[in-house]
Amino acid sequence: MSIEMELQEVLLQELQDETKHPYSSLLKYAILSSIFGNKTAANFMKNTNLWRGYFEYYTSECETAMSVGRLHWVVKTHQDIVRIVELLRDPSNSRESIKDKEKDRIVTTQLQVSDEVIYNAIDLAARLGFMTLIGSSEQVFRGGERCVTWDDGQLETALATEFSRTGVLEKEHVKLEKLFNARSLDRIAGLQIIWTSNLANHLRVQNDDKEVSIFHYASFLTSQKQSAVLPPGLIEETIRTLELLFPQFDDDSNDWFRKKARKGNLDANAIKCGQLAAEGRQIENFHYWRDRLIILKQVFDEAEPRGLKRWWRDRRKPVQWYNFWLAVAMIVGMTFFFGVIQSVEGAMQVYKAYHPS
Question: Nearest 5 degrees, angle CA 181-CA 187-CA 192?
Answer without folding.
Answer: 85
